[in-house]
Amino acid sequence: MSEETEKQPILTGAEPVLYVADFAVSLAFFTEKLGFTADFTYGDPPFYGVVERDSARLCLRRVGEPLFVGDIRAREELLSASITLGSAAAIERLFRDYRAVGVSFHLTLKTQPWGALNFIVVDPDGNLILFAGPSD
Length: 136
Description:
The protein has one domain: 2,3-Dihydroxybiphenyl 1,2-Dioxygenase, domain 1 (Roll), CATH 3.10.180. It is built from three helices and eight strands, in the order βαβββαβαβββ. The protein has helices at residues 23-33, 72-76, 88-100; strands at residues 17-20, 37-43, 46-53, 56-62, 79-84, 104-111, 116-122, 128-134.
């Protein structure tokens, strides 16, 4: 097949990597608080793994020292991952579920000027994870 007749490559997903100080603590946060399941873990003791919930997948990678200086992530709202939902009802429900189990938020549920409804969760390492969808 010539280059001219080949189809464009199709990207089928993305798996952001979140850097964590304590792999076990982070794995527990994502599985017990956010409702993800562990797809796999690697190492003895584990230092890398993937968690998933529906079509969302996140990689967790243990690192031995801080990667960000001070409060730069919170101050500049440096997102580590962005996860989308299909409706306002779904994002409102997820926000209520997370609030009920004591998840920490950088931003509580808010309709943005551009029309998105979103909130931002803070994991035990300060990673900011955006959950967003249409405001309907």
